[in-house]
Every structure is written in structure tokens, then in C-alpha cells.
Amino acid sequence: MREESEVDDPDVLLRVAGVVKHFPIRQGIVVKHQIGSVRAVDGVSLEVRRGETLGIVGETGCGKSTLARCMTRLHPLTAGTVTFDGQDITNLTRRRLRPVRREIQMIFQDPYGSLNPRRRVGSIIGDPFAIHGLADGLERKRRVQELMELVGLNPEHYNRFPAEFSGGQRQRIGVARALALRPKLIVCDEPVSALDVSIQAQIINLLAGLQGEFGLTYVFIAHDLSVVEHVSDRVAVMYLGKVVELADAAGLYGHPRHPYSAALLSAASVPDPDLADRRERIILTGDVPSPVDPPAGCRFHPRCPKARDRCAAEEPGLVVRAADPPAHLTACHFPVEAGENLARA
Amino acid sequence: MTLLSVRDLRVTFPTADGYVRAVRGVSFDVDAGQTLGIVGESGSGKTVATQTLLGLTRGAEVSGEALFEGRNLLTMRPDQLRAVRGARISTIFQDPLSSLHPLYRVGWQIVEMIRAHRDIGKEAARRRAIELLAMVGIPRARTRVDDYPHQFSGGMRQRAMIAMALALDPKLIIADEPTTALDATVQAQILDLLARLRDELGTALIVITHDLGVVADIADEVLVMYAGKLVEVADRRTAYYEPHHPYTKGLLESIPGAAGTHGALRPIPGQPPSLIAVPSGCAFHPRCRYVMAECVTDEPELRDIGSPAHRSACWLPAYQVGLDEGGVRSG
Amino acid sequence: MSTTDRRPALAVGTEEPGQPVEGRSPWRLAWDRLRHDRVAVVCAVFIGLLVLVAVLAEPISMLVGYGPTQQDRTGGITTDGLPTPPSPHHLLGTDNLGRDILVRIVYGSQVSLLVGVGAAVAAVVIGVVVGLCAGYLGPAVDTVLARLMDVVLSFPFLLFAIALVTVAGPSELIEIAVIAFFSWAAVGRIVRGQTLAIREKEYVEAARSLGAGDVRIMFVDVLPNLVAPVIVYTTLLIPVSIVFEATLSYLGVGIIPPTPSWGNMISDSQNFYQVAWWFLVFPGLALVLTTLAFNLLGDSVRDALDPRTEFRGR
């Protein structure tokens, strides 16, 4: 994640470097001119290694969904690069990007919105085959039904419409669609957030099983910390368009070093009364500022219980701090010390 | 002292596809100052049950009894119910963006609500509104009272809703998924606020949610609902550490936070049932790991498990409480 | 932030025990709703009969015994040269030239239906294609096409219609062309609006992430979602076109006499209705009832395809 790391590390499947994505805000009557921009992602560098699950957590406005779409080139980047399997895909034309799209897929959040309500499920799952001209007619149907079974759906429901399925089943349809072309990387954007609690576990287990069976690599985006901890090998915490901490899951959840990560973890709802009683919540003041006009210096400083002058002036880089292991990066001038209790700060 | 006593509440909706039996016989009590957590997923009937108490469901066939301060809410006339709503029992909804009127100033909405129930002047009502907004932690309440809802952030809107709910010193507040639409850090703020206010004002609270973490945080007593019925009633610690009903156990074993890290989650197989064609016997039997012959034919009623404080609607013997190996307890 | 799975737990179409509720496709559901709507059924029957009558115009005319332009100088016209009232020979009376009104109405229905439906369909096809392109292909294309639609909508239809007819001569085809020309932009605008909304949906995003091209997405993903509003709009555009046609004929720039059209019949009756009420009333009634039937049917179709009054329980 140091930007000058080895370029052709075969272990790295996807690398994003210095990704910036700004959405212009336009105003004007006849001709619209730009008056500002929503700085959704403002300089993110990450690597995704083969076979791992990289979790990305953050609250609304942190830019995680936008980052996901930059990774899959659904959005053109304002700046930065995206490298997939050694190939720079940042500026590829639509045509050149097509073969790459077979290798990177997405699973979306909304089981009710990510499937076209007017198309039959077989047609939806078969879309990838149709678009890339890989299978036709009966062969396509066979493969689609195979996929349906793989994800736990009844292949005889091939001709049904999405409305005839429950939320969990619809999400399975989304998984089947993403899996169709045997991609290498699947970016999951909040895949279980909109599902009932008892169904979430089914989908999480399904994704884990498929990862083992097909050697998939996942980027898993969510706002639910316990889910991310459960599925991820490494986790990146995002705040207002930047990554503030990056570590392996145990390291992050065991000793978060960034005050925001600490606050987020302490705020997470924990289904364990004793733990809830014992835990002292770090209550942050104020609300998340708007990505249109982020604070100067460290973006978190207005709400940070440890903020000092330096934080308002100088933005901290995402580097290894103090005695942390080399895989644990924090973007903070005064990281949380071992044993320090921010709830009383 | 019992504030609200619900007995055998049943709510059925006639639809083109058949009768949707949303609530199939729910009974519970709420004592003054107590916090009840009603947990359930979609289709459990938790929201329909509480909304029916306040007369907010339309086109439904309702039976049963809900005694609040000695009067049956279910048989009250609309004007009587209106007098109760807001003043004696108030509600906080999930999405404050849709429950606050977008075209009226926040302060105005609070003032109007106060004056609809009490005979006090505009000035006095406005002072009260400012006082309430300050109490719920909205900074510069004096100026913000004249803002429109869209000028408030999500967390602040929810605080404004709480302010409205408290305006008339209700005895009971029903909070329907109060934190679901909020970010984690804001959720923490709101729960903290609710707990503080409850302690200071002694209001009883019913929190309806699907989030077991929220309930672990704030509730005294936990009610678990499934397919329109209560399947387990227990105090907080018992519900999480010694659950009896297989659905409760299943929930606790399938949520990452509760079952421990990196162990495989144990999902409850299948889906919640259709409320038109509820399975025979115990509604949970098609998904239950412990299913026995009687579960298919006889519907179990809530019965005491060890103590009257712990009740479960299951045919399993009373000693079979607790999570299976793999379930985690702290402390 | 997300909300939980709040739909009613009607897990239709699963293979779980205790779930006998059968799944129905959205089209099937809509059709069922329509079938049970009495108003829709009555209107549909009326329109069906009208179509039948239009198709069987010749046999009907032979049955009645008079052609549409045939003047009955004996029993069809009074001694003062005025129309005769309804009688066993002329069930709906005659017009000022002694022609049987019933037969003329029947032939007129051919014009109304042909032009009405033809123009509506033509307008919708053009409007859908333009609207789809404007809505989906991005701001550059959109600006051009949207301005085009604005320009077309600001044309004064009457002046243009008259001008065109003067150049091209009156006929059904010209009528269809003119009416379609003025109607397509309204359809286009609606389709454009819908397309803009659909474009932001996650399933379109999903299609793009799979590598689908623009044209494929427009026709495979967006268009099926437009079918419902397009059907509704078409059924509501038909009566508008029918009235439009009647207006053109009334003004003498559509179908001109002696060929009967409800519009020109009404026009002809202007000088005689005080003494021959049937001359005005029957063609007028035909026009009104047909328009009403299509309008009501259109309303019912809209309700069937997009019900908002259904129970949504939790």
C-alpha cells in the first residue's frame, strides 16, 4: 500500500492507486457550470490479494460504494489508476474492457432493485452468457440451471419472475449471475444488509462456500462491523473518502489504532448483554460532515476526542505507526495506544 | 404497576390472496418505567401488533384486548384514540424523513402537536419546543427550532422525533426500529439518548427491532416474535445466554457478533412462512432442528420455563436451555 | 443506509412445506385484475363490437339496404329537402342528402378506428425510440432530442395540418401522419423521463458491470420496463387521436365528404340540427361513447398494471 510497491507482485489481483472520484455539482439555467464537487473518494490506494477477502467498512458518505464502482470501472476515475491482474484498466475503452469484465463481477445490495422485475430469472442469470456470446439456447439453459443449483435455488424456477422470490432468494440469483462466467474477483456491495437476520447467515455461508470451491477473491463492503469481521481476512476502514486504517481482521478488531475505528467498533451493536454493559461507548459529537467540503488536515479531527493542532493542519498518511506489525496501517498522528480508553477522553 | 396489558391480540387482513394472519394471539404486559424489546424479522408481526394498539392499521380485523390505564385501546373511538396518541403513548418511527412533514418547520410541528392536546399559548408551546430540542441534544436549539427537516441530518431528525415524542410527557413510548436507518456512530448516540431520557423521566419504552444488539443494549425484558406469535419472553440475560426456543437459539447462532469470530455461522434453514398459509402446529417446525412429532400437529402456547419470568412456546422440555457448543458467552 | 427486508413474508414460489400459495407472474396478475374490473370488461366489449361493426361495414350496409353515399330520394328526404327522422327504413334517420345515418356511422367508424389506432401506434413507436435514445444515451444526445421534442410540441397543429393537407391532399394516410406528428413528442417526453429514472436502477448498473452494450441494455433491460406505461399511454392516446381525426374532418381538412367520418357528419349537421336533432346527436354519440370507452379502458389498464390500492402489510 506504499505507492511505490512492487508493480508486478503476482499475489496482487487488483491494485488501486491514488484513486480519486469527484462528482461535479452543477448549476445554471441554460448552460450548467460546476460550482463544486462531491469528493466521494479522495485518494485511496489498496491492494487485493488473490484468494483473500478484503473488507471495507465505513458509514454513509465514506465513499466505499463509490470506491467499489471505481474498482469495477463502472465509474470513470477522476484520477488514479486501477490495475487488474497486472493490466492497467484505468482508461480502457468499453470494447477493450469487455474481456476484463468477465473476470470482475459485482453483487449488489438491494435484492429488490438489482434484478430487472420484467425479466425472467433464467434470462437474468443467463445474461452474462448472452452478452459475451458464450452459450446459446439449450446449452445456456443448462448452465443457468447448474448455477441455480449451486446457489441453492430450484432449477425448475427458471421461468419465474423476481417478484416471485423472497429477498434471500433474490440475492442468491444475484450471486448466480455474478458467478456465471467464473470470475476471479467479486466485489460485494453490502450483499446482506437488506436481508433478514436469519437469511444473512445463509448468504454469508454461501459466499464463503463458493470462495473455497472456485478460488474466488472478494472485496466485501458493508457497514455492519460484525459481518465484516466474520468474513474478512483484512479490513480497511474508510472515512470521508479516505482509508483511515488497514489491517488484518483480528488486528483491527483487537486493537484499533485510529480513533474513528475505535469509535466505530465501540458503537457497533453487540448482541451480548454483558459485553454491552461492560463496554464503554465512545460517543462522537456531531454528525458526519458532507463530502462536498471536507475538513482541512485530518478529516476526522473536528469529531476526534484526541485532536490537537497538528491534526487540523496536516493530513496524516496511511503508514505503519509505532510498534505495529507491517500489515497494520493507520492514518493518524496520535493513534490510540494500547490500553488507552477514548470513552473517557 | 402495569401500564399496558395486551391480551390475545389478533390482527387479520383480508386480501385477494386470502387472509393474512399477521398477529395470531399476542399477550404481554408493560410496567411503568420498564423497557421492553420486541425482536422479530419481517413478517413476524411486531410492527403490525404495536401499530394496531394505536389504531394505525387500516382494513384489519382486530380482536383481543389492550388495556391502557384501565381502558381498552382496541375499542376506543377514533377521537379518544387521538387523545391518547402523542399525549399518553407516543411513537418514534424508523425513518424520520418520512414521519416529519418536509414542508413545515420542525418547531412548528412540535408546537402544533402540543397545542392539539393541551390548551396552552403559542409562546409557551414554543418555549417548550426549544426546551425539548435542547434536551435531546440539538445544539443551538433556539435557532434550529425554525429549521426545516431537510436542514437536519439523519441523527438530528431522529432526535427531533424523540423530542416530539416526549413533548407531552407520555407514560409510554413505542420506538419502531428507531436506529435502523442510522449510521453506527449515530445509532450509538441515539440509544444513549433514549436510555438517558428513560432513566431521567421514568417513561416506559417498547423498542421494536430486528437488531439483537440494540435490544441487548437497552431492554430489560425481551420478547421474541415469529410468524405473528410470541415464541419467547425472558429477561435480558436469560434471553441471550439461556434461550429456550429454537428460533431464539437459531438467531443467536447465526449472527456474527453473537456466535464468535470466524466460526462458521449456523443459519436457520428456509424462510419465514407465508402468513396466509401458516404451517400447522408450531409455525417454526419446518425450520426447526429439534422438531418432534407433536410440533407438526399441536401448536405450543407460551409456558413457564423454570420461572414465570421466562416463557417459551415450544414442546421441548424446560431444562433444554442455552446455546449449543459453538455458542459464545462472555464474562 | 439500508432497511431490512420489509416486504410481507409471502414467500411465494418456494418449495417449502406449508407454502401452498402459487406464484403468478406480474403480467398474469395484471390480466387477472383487468378481468375482474367490470368497467374494463364493458368497455372492452363495446370496443370489440365497434371493431366488428367496422369490419362488417359492407354486410351491414347491404342488410340495411343503403350504401354510405347513396341518396334515398324517395323516403330519405322530406318534401322541403330536409332530413327524415328515425323510422323503420332508416333506423337513425337520414342526413340532408337523404343518406342513411346508421350506415354512415358504421363506415365512419372505420375511419375513426383506422386513423385513431394507426396514428396512436405510429406516434408511440416514434416516441418510444426517440425517448429511449434521449433518456439513455447521455446528455449530448438528450439535449438535441429533448429540444426537438420541445419544438414539435410548440407547433400550432391546426395551421400545420391545414398547410399539409393543402399540399398533399386529404386522405386517411395524411391524417395519420399529421396526428402522429403532433402526438409522438408527448410520448417521447414521458418515455424519456421513465428511461432517465430506469437508467439509475441497480439492475441497469448490473448489466453494465456484466459488459452489456448500450443498445442491448436499452432493448433488453429498459424497454420491458417501459411496456406498462407505454400500453397505458397508447390506450389513452387512441381516443385523443380519434377526436383529433374528428376535429380535422370537422374543419374540412381531414376526410372530406362524401366519404363519411364522424367529424364531417357533425360538421354537416350544423345547419340542420335544429330541425333534425338525430343528424347531430347520433354521430356525436358515437364519438363520445367511443372516446369514453377507450378512456375508461385505459384507466383500468393503468390500474391493472400499477395498483396502488393493494394491501401492503407488514
List keywords for this structure.
heterotrimer; A: 345 residues; alpha/beta; eight-stranded mixed β-sheet; four-stranded antiparallel β-sheet; 11 helices; globular; B: 331 residues; 13 helices
Structural description of this entry:
The complex is a heterotrimer of chains A (345), B (331) and C (314). Chain A is α/β, with parallel strands linked by helices and 345 residues long. Chain A has helices spanning 64-71, 94-101, 121-131, 137-150, 167-179, 197-214, 225-231, 249-254, 259-267, 273-278, 309-313; strands at residues 12-27, 33-49, 53-57, 79-84, 87-88, 104-107, 185-189, 217-222, 234-239, 242-248, 319-320, 329-330. Helix content of chain A is 30%, strand content 23%. Chain A has an 8-stranded mixed β-sheet, sandwiched between helices. In chain A, strands 2-1-4-5 form a 4-stranded antiparallel β-sheet. In chain A, a hairpin with an 8-residue loop joins β11 and β12. In chain A, α3 (121-131) crosses α4 and α5 runs parallel beside α6. Chain A is globular and about 65 Å long. Chain B is 34% helix and 24% strand. Chain B has helices at 46-53, 78-84, 96-99, 106-117, 122-135, 141-144, 154-166, 184-201, 212-218, 236-241, 246-254, 256-259, 293-297; strands at residues 2-15, 18-31, 35-39, 61-68, 71-72, 89-92, 172-176, 204-209, 221-226, 229-235, 303-305, 307-312. In chain B, β7, α8 and β8 form a beta-alpha-beta unit. Chain C has one domain: MetI-like fold, CATH 1.10.3720.10. Chain C contains 11 helices and no strands. Chain C has 314 residues and is an all-alpha fold. The chains are: A alpha/beta (345), B alpha/beta (331), C mainly alpha (314). Chains in contact: A-B, A-C, B-C. The interface between A and B is large, with 43 and 49 residues.
